[in-house]
Fold this sequence. Notes:
The chain has helices spanning about 15-25, 65-75, 120-130, 155-165, 175-190, 230-235, 245-250, 255-275, 280-290; strands spanning about 35-40, 45-50, 50-55, 85-90, 100-105, 110, 175, 195-200, 210, 215-220, 225, 295-299. By secondary structure, it is an alpha+beta fold.
Amino acid sequence: MLPDARATLPLTVPDETVRALIDDQFPHLADLELGRRYTLEDHFAIRIGDHHGALFPRLGADDPLFARAADVLAPHLDRWSFPVSAPIETGRPGHGFPFHWALVDWVSASTAAFVPLHADSARDLGSALREVHRPASADAPLNPLTARGLASLVDDWERLLVFASLRGAPENRVLDVEATDALFRVGVAAPVDVEPRWTHGRLEPRSIQSDRGRFAGILIWHSFGAGDPAADLGGAATVVPLEMRDELYAGYGEVSAPTAWRAQSYQLLAAMRHIEIDDPFLARMAWERLLELGLAHEA
């Protein structure tokens, strides 16, 4: 049985409920087999046949984002030249499932969490972000992950930094807490020198797709909205090694110094979050980036 909609713990949803929701609300997909389920901390995705999938939020706080995602994304999809596993229809609560959910186009590829991008793909990822980061109108919905600003995230940063320092790095390395904190605060102090842009907000190894190392698209779009593009650049930098950063920015185009510093801080924040999540692929990438920056050393 599904828990009450007001529960704060992530929902666990049985396949029978998923099947019933799809069959009732999208009957043209009723004959298609459900494929593998991919469960993340805040949502899960399940494949439907060869060309569709569904994303279901596991937390009530994300319900408004899933309710709006397909409508907010629709005007942008024809402008983008890269593959997008985007919400195309909105599913409604039902059969005991209390939240809105999203029917998506399914892009068949691995994620960069499992198959890291090759060096020549960094430029393609940067070009895709430039297409996403169009100026946002004054009435554009806010991206909850990119519009808040770094100053509002300092408390979260301090908690995550303590956690990472106690968890420790692989191979007997330790985090240089003072240097890491000092670098993060450079970005906090940097001015936001760009107008709000449309932003993805959830760029990370699990939302960037990789086809044998080639950039193959972007998924997990429910946070899409207006915000600081530096947050997306920082997310991309969690996937791209430091030696490929110039290629990422070459594909993206001009990046001001304040935006680059903010992006660096968002990258550090993402690394701390990935260390906290109990996922060995995310933690490995996070520590790789910290080592490249000289922020971890031999014990």
